[in-house]
Amino acid sequence: MATQWGLCGAGKISHDFSVAMKTLPAEDHQIAAIASRSNERAKEFAKKHSIPKVYGSYEELARDPDIDIVYLGVLHTEHWRVGLLFLKAKKNVLCEKPFAMNSRQVKELVEAAKENNVFLMEAIWSRCFPVHAEVRKLLAEEAVGEVKLVKAYFGSPQLHIPRSVEKELGGGALLDIGVYCLQFVLMVFNGERPDSIQASGVLLDSGVDESVVVVMKFSRKRMALCAFSIAARFQNDAVISGTKGSIKVLGPMHCPTTLVVNDKKTEYPLPEPCLPLNFTNSTGLRYEAEEVRQCLLKGLKESPRMPLADSVLLTEIMDEIRKQVGVVFIQDRK
After folding, report:
1. Does the reported pTM lie above 0.70?
2. Which segments constitute the Gfo/Idh/MocA-like oxidoreductase N-terminal domain (predicted)?
3. Calpha distance 169→330 (Å, rounded)
4. Nearest to 214 by CA among 170, 253, 182
5. Residue 334, pLDDT above cutoff 80
6. Inter-residue contact 127 to 155 (CB < 8 Å)
7. Cα–Cα distance measured from residue 308 to residue 191, given in angstroms and rounded to the nearest whole number
8. Could you tell me if 325 and 203 are in contact, meaning their C-beta atoms sit under 8 angstroms apart?
9. Of the residues 49, 175, 234, 323, which has the maximum number of CB atoms within 10 A of its CB?
10. 265 with 183: CB under 8 angstroms?
11. What is the rounded CA–CA span in Å between residue 125 and residue 129?
């Protein structure tokens, strides 16, 4: 039986997700419904992507008995509220990153998933890419010896995009793109909590972070360095340096197709999209969709590739970085 998906939000990422779905077998995945607060937008979206059911409210989607999993592609300031709506309606949820605005909200989502015995995953799609699977395999084999330093960079000029710069929309480099650098570090270090975090950054006039550099120390004299910016273009690569060599994930590190291990390069090409995409390499969203299907078939309540404990730790680290850099959102007040 095909996994029946319900899309919540008819924005750019939901478009790309729908296009990515077309690269997977129809007998495995079906988008059964689209919900948007605007019935018009939902209708337009459904027509473009041949989706049978259209809802002009999220509540209607939450009540649909035929939906196996909801993909939450709304603005991240809404993730907590809308996420709780679906979890309490006993719906499995794949929630776009960042999971929520702070660790308190994330813990509430995790708690709601457990209370209602449903599947929940933060859509850190990077973790589902073949490149990342290969990186995990190489690390398990100690292919580069003992890892001493992990570096991850992500810079993308997007000061012209309201959701990137406005505080009310949950703007800033950290929540939008820094999350990818930090999750990579946590993946390499197996979800270990850093012993120390030092962050320095510059803010926009709106009070959100424009550029941030983070240094983390882990046990056994291991370190990580992350830099991210919404003002400058970086190479967007990630490097794992060990006592016997290095692993380099070429940019874009958050949706990679090229891996270099001790100067040996391997390509992992993506399928071509059937419609124009909004974001880089978006047909790679197919990997997280398939990961979710496999988890549901096995009766799992979370993904081993992106466990909920990793999401909680990731958000706790981001809370600490924001504290050090001086970014406060309205959601931080209880």
Report:
1. yes
2. 5-121
3. 11
4. 182
5. no
6. no
7. 10
8. yes
9. 175
10. no
11. 7
